[in-house]
Amino acid sequence: MTSIKIQGWEKKPRTTLRGIKVGDIFMLSLGDLTFAAGRILSKTSIGHGAEFFDLLLTRPEFSAADIESSRRACPPVIIDSYWVFDRKLDYDSLQVLIC
Questions:
Q1: Residue 59 burial (CB count, 10 A)
Q2: Which of 15, 33, 41, 75 could disulfide-pair with 49, CB 3.0 to 4.6 Å?
Q3: Count of beta carbons in the 10 Å neighbourhood of residue 49
Q4: pLDDT per residue over 15-34, tens digit each?
């Protein structure tokens, strides 16, 4: 079993780009009280490669067991890390990426 460290949703209002590491698990608000979870797979010149789990949650909370039992929802995608993590803009348009 892997060791997953979980920080609260309100822990950090912003995440700097230099603070994003391969293996980080993150959550995104999809707007209508729906949250998606994903994991950083790689760093690229235009952002980060990420996978999204088949977890759609109604609260910004999950456990290590939730992540360990989840599966990949779609093929990995490249995300604009600045838009997603540093600026934390409205994520309604991100629904297209979640498959």
A1: 10
A2: 41
A3: 15
A4: 677 778 898 888 887 777 88
